[in-house]
Sequence to fold (873 residues):
Amino acid sequence: MKKGFVFLLVLCGLSLFSDNIFAEKTKQALRAYDKGDFEKVEDILLKSMEDDSLNPATEYVWALLYSNENYPKYHLDTAHFYIEYACQHIKLQNEDHLDELEDADLFEYDLKNKKIAIDSMAFVVASNKGDIEAYEHFIEIYNDAADVDQAVAIRNQLVFAEVEATYNWRAYADFLKKYPNAAQAEKAQIQYDKLVFEDKTSSGKIEDLEQFLIDEPQTPYRHSIERKIFEDYVGELNPGRVIDFLRKYDNPVLSQRAQSMLYYLDETSFSALIKELGIKPSFVDSVHQLKRLNRKPISLAHRNGSFEFLDLNGEEFLVNSFSKVNEKYRCGNILDELLLVERAGERQLINRNGEVVFDGFDGRVEDLGSGLLAVEDDGKVGLIHKSGFRLLNAEYDGLELLGNSLLVFEVEGKHGVMSVTGKKYIQATYDDIYIKGPFWVFQKGEQFGVSNLLEIKSFEGVNFNLNLPFEEVEWINEKYIIGFLEDSEVLLNDQLKIITPDSTKRINTKHETWVIELSDGYTTFDPRLGELSTNTYQGVMQNDEWLGLTRNGKWFVYNKNIYDEPIIGVDSLKLLGEDIAIVFRGKDGLAIFPNKEVVEITEGQYLKSIGPKVKTDTHFLVVKERDENILYKNGLEQFRLTCDELGYISDSAFYVKKYNKYGAVGLDGRLIMRVRYDAISEADNEVAPVLYNGKFGAYNFRDRVLLRMDYQEKIKPYNETMFMVNEDGQYGLLDNLNELKVEPEFEQIKYWSDSSFLGLKEGSWNIVNMHDGSNTLSEVRYFEFIKDTPEEKILLIRKEEGYGVFHSAKGMIIPTVFHDVINLGNDKTQLYFTETAVSEADIYVVVYYDTNGKKLFSEAYREEVYDSLVCED
Fold:
């Protein structure tokens, strides 16, 4: 007993002695450190680490040592790592280790303070070096230091300075990629956008501009580039010539008019040349203010005896009021930049600031585009610019701007061509002039001729004498047009060059390579390259994938176009559908798929191309010999099956026919549906209608579920997982797993949502919940959608008591108490005009509601005022 007690005392003593030793080692190391005896410190610490490698006190002293500039091995990064380890390990230590720290007069905050000090010393080192590498090193190693944000900012500034010196878009792009959150990122983005635009569009070629839009879809220069492309393509009023005028001349009136024209023709050039051209700031501010106002749709109201304009929130848009307005404004959602009004007996065009742009006319106004308006006065039409100056006096029966470049004018039923300032290019001698793409078509009686803008402009001051040889013309695309003669056809390109020989009888433009039928055979034309073949062939066959041409009894078979390597020496050719070619050399035949895979065939086999109605990249061929049908997919055999007929249902299912009954198999030839049905149609979303004993149903091939066969008509999709079914003239809903979600008891069903539907029952429409049959809306006699999107649906409804508005999320926002409800807003924002007639008093009470159904104001009108306000559409 005494021996055991003595042993326990010895053991406890040893434990206390061990703790004291560790504490003493730390104190010894610190005393040696204070004396500058670094070798002794190292010796103590190395021994300490042998006993305990995770001792935070030891790590702390190492950090002291390596952060001391007098220490021969001075290295802040090493000091940083030791102090980080110390801060981490102190949280993992037991009570003995914490006691050791306390005995050494060290605490956790000493470790944290030392870490802060080391981080600061490292930042000073980086700052003293002052280069990118030093700051990068600090950011990487000391990533949680207090100075790291400052280091990042300085590093970014140094890098950006180098980028600025380089001044090319690739350097800016690299900067933005590496430092997207840098303070200089915004400026870098601006410079990048500018420089990449200048570099990639420096050639000025249209193809380069178009490619730039593809490469840089988010470029801020999009509007400018699209404008330039548009000008080149359609040859409209030339902004370049307007700018040249402003550079050459200093006429105050004409310069302001030219400035206005430039703004409507090319707003970007207008903005870019403001300083150079000396455009007044007041004019620029006015243009920008109008641009903002022009974006807002507005509507009409009648208060205090006058018409006034409102925004779609019901707020006053213009302070002015008017005695009359354009009748089309009654229906709201007015987007016109200039408003046609009348006040004090004078007809006016005003802008959205309420300023009078033009007056002194009595008829209609038509927007021709490019800032031009055709204005009628005293039965004749003239031309004004939207900024308010007259271009042409009212002396024409009609004006039309074609190609945004020249005017077609009408005088006494005849048409000619002139500039917007009245310069005549073609006198009014034609019955009609119109454009198809880049082609200008001229008609006299039953004869037609074709020209283009370049040719028309070349006739300035010269008598225009266009040949009109055609009985009819057909526009093919932006590069080609066909003229029809009595017994032949002529193909012209956009340069008005005749492509086809005189002996051309017919031009087939349906496929990638065009086939020209000649009096003595056929030739081909590549519309992309504009090349006409010099070869003549005796026969031709063509579908979407193959072109066959025969000469001297042999066929040349091309995949789509004549630049493909042909299959030669073919004795006979047959094309199946739009995708497969059948070729024979002697008795040996091949079925060739678009992917060039082939299937060997022999005479006597029946071949059929099958597939969906919409063309895809998957092609199927059925080869039948006697009763065996073989299915090939893209040239590879899928299965063989004995049946009367094999046909297409979907890419993974095919119908089989035996003894006038139908079944279905999968792509592996295994039976999916028994052969017993009267008909199986092509699947839509893997669901195929099925007819059995005079009843309709369907089969869900995705889930391998046969839907009920109880219905009087083909089932129709309600959404992706449910179908409308008709049983005894009543409609219900069946899901794709054959569960009847809604019993057939409705006269009609229309889609509302995936959980509710619009159902007509006993003459009333209801919104019915599919799960419990409850009605969200009921007893509706009539409805129409004001808005119908997956996110939001708004209904104009009529109940027995009147019209109202129902919202999918907000419920009834306008009560059904009105004789009429009209939306004067648009699809995004509604402004409701509601009306109740008091017939005995000859009064109409009109209440305006905003898009949320909040009442804005109400007015009472006599019949004549109401008739001048209400929309009759």
